[in-house]
Amino acid sequence: MAPIFVRSLPFGLYIALLVLESLLPDWAPGFDVRWLYPVKAGLVALALAVLWRHYTELRSYGLPFKHLLLALAVGLGVLVLWVNLDAAWMLMGEAGKGYNPTDETGRIDWLLVAFRIAGAALVVPIMEELFWRSFLQRWVQQPDFLTLDPAQIGFKALLIASALFAVEHLQWLAGLVAGLAYGWLYIRTRNLWAPIIAHSVTNGALGAYVVTTGHWSFW
To answer: 3-state class of 19 per DSSP?
Structure first.
């Protein structure tokens, strides 16, 4: 299979399901769209599993301890910035209610929370880092991207990929900062697992923050 296709398919599937999620309230008014998230995460995880043998950049599972610590620090640093970069001018549109796992009495549905955090921390980082960092960031630098050492990625490619990553998020400035941080980490460590771990830490810790504070708009 084409290298671009296998790194784009899980991401494209995720985006298609996001579009479906926005249409469902009109198509099926009685359906609780919150339950589409585990379906979305599950289908993306299945796509990743089927295509896993093609992801040569993920065959090495080990990270030097210093790179692991760096990934954890970057992930937590992005989290701190993410929850603070939410002023009106930092948003692409108006902030919505987000993914709210509570019922009409305000009680949290912990199964919804578990699905949301598992998808955001375990599935989304792999899917997005394969697309944004391993593919797009390298491809902007060099069309034959699989032969490119991540350390050779220049600032222009980092900035373009990070800006497009930002457009994917309501919090565009936070998305830009996150894209630059994860992209720099990929260049610095030359190992895709480093930004995956950092992204996972950000998303997992953000989930804990959201559930603790009730700031569902961050979801």
So the answer is: helix
